[in-house]
Amino acid sequence: MDIKNLMVTGGCGFIGSNFIDHLFAKPDFQGRIVNVDKLTYAGNPENLRGIDIKYPGRYIFVKADICDAGLMQEIFDRYDIDAICHFAAESHVDRSIKRPESFIHTNIIGTFNLLEIAKVNQEKFQIFHHISTDEVYGSLGPEGLFTEETPYRPNSPYSASKAASDHLLRAYHETFGLPTTLSNCSNNYGPYQFPEKLIPLVIMNAVEGKPLPVYGDGKNVRDWLYVTDHCEAIWIIMQSGKRGETYNIGGNSEMENIVIVEMICDLLDEMLPLAGKRSRRELITFVKDRPGHDRRYAIDFTKLHRTLGWSPGESFPTGLRKTIRWYLDHTSWIERIKTGEYQQWIKEHYGEG
Length: 353
Ligand code: NAD
Ligand code: TYD
Hints:
CATH architecture of the domain at 5-191 and 225-252 and 298-314 and 340-350: 3-Layer(aba) Sandwich
Helix content: 40-55%
Strand content: 15-25%
Oligomer: single chain
Number of helices: 13
Largest sheet: 7 strands, parallel
Bound molecules: nicotinamide-adenine-dinucleotide, thymidine-5'-diphosphate
């Protein structure tokens, strides 16, 4: 496969910006990336500062909403797009519980727009890769793993909107022969994650000595994957995955939330001790549970491993240490997110809460 003009949607978000950085560093990608991002509160062009200089002529940024079908068609034509890697989404479960509207627009209508445009321009089109989540499968009991055969049972407005987009992708392959691949991945962590998600939120609060909110009894389980492992899996699937297929991606790293929060406390106590050597575990605060909170996610990625040879490279303890180091070294990035335009945007669109 020789992609010439790859449209990456949501490339200023957490995983999208890591993916662009990761892909440009690969010798087997020599094409151009057109990053289409609306720059919501979660989109931060600063994540890719200097990328256009590092890779001259190969990076284009367009501020645009994937819900604007006319504009998407224009971008498609202007840049002669021959592949899409689709990250753009509203991505936070708690926000979807408070205000689901934008999840329905971006995650469903936005994905539909892109699929339609790819369908209409199919003769020159190589691949539509859609990034999705393991949350579409619902919640597991204490045993078992999600496979690609697990029935969809989404429980939050976020996961329901992602499930809808996955179904549309499948339909466009089955009905129109669109060359698609789909990946359903577990929880990611690493640099540039917006501090509304568990790991960066706890790191930032713990650095500042603020309470560390743990929902419910803290025993909900997620399967954690370091973000660059996810990026590598996506690229492998885009290149060699069978068209029309789904691949699960996971970290082999099931952890209870409370264990993660304690690990962050202990690592920070070592890397940045508090005055008087107080333990940050004292900051842990159990709070009211999230409504409909899925108990456990865990991924079986045998298919991806057996057929395409991928497995995660980073272990959770080393990945977590690296992530904490990154947040400690990027205090100005954090400051800008906490103040100014991003906060203003959140207030305008989501109110204070
Ligand atoms: P993120 O919230 O950090 O970034 C989302 C990006 O999409 C932002 O840059 C935002 O500005 C952009 N965006 C939002 N609405 C848009 C619109 N209408 N038009 C154009 N751009 C828009 O999200 P993330 O954590 O990087 O997740 C990326 C993708 O991966 C999502 O599809 C998400 O469902 C999926 N995913 C995330 C995880 C995870 O743990 N973060 C796990 C599995 C799958
Ligand atoms: P999150 O990072 O929001 O990802 P997701 O809901 O997509 O899995 O949450 C990860 C887990 O951490 C989830 O079980 C909810 C829990 N959680 C807390 O206990 N406290 C928090 O402040 C947040 C944001 C999440």
